[in-house]
Design brief:
This protein is of the alpha+beta class. It has one domain. Helix content is 24%, strand content 32%. It contains 3 helices and 3 strands. A 3-stranded antiparallel sheet has the order 1-3-2. Strand 2 and strand 3 (50-58) form a beta hairpin. The longest helix has 7 residues, at 18-24. It is globular, with a radius of gyration of 14 Å. The two termini are 13 Å apart. The relative contact order is 0.29.
Length: 78
């Protein structure tokens, strides 16, 4: 989210557990000023696997402390 301009979108391409991952990321979205605009579900034609595209809109400027260094992310995840 720090690299996206306000009003822009980040599209997260997820598998069948995308909804679970989205629930885990709610706090991070709040901190980084992102909001889920809509969720698009698709099924692959050959094997009918489920795919989820999550469209996240950036609502406000992200704090300058983001993006963080990898070591800091590992010690204190969002």
């Amino acid at each position: 989210m720090p690299l996206i301009k306000v009003g822009g979108y980040f599209i997260a391409l997820k598998g069948d557990k995308g909804q679970e991952e989205l629930n885990e990321a709610k706090n991070a979205l709040k901190i980084l000023n992102g909001e889920v605009s809509f969720i698009q579900e698709e099924h692959l034609p050959k094997n009918n696997d489920k795919r989820i595209n999550v469209f996240i809109e950036k609502k406000q400027v992200t704090k300058t402390s983001y993006p963080r260094l990898f070591a800091k992310i590992k010690k204190n995840p969002l």
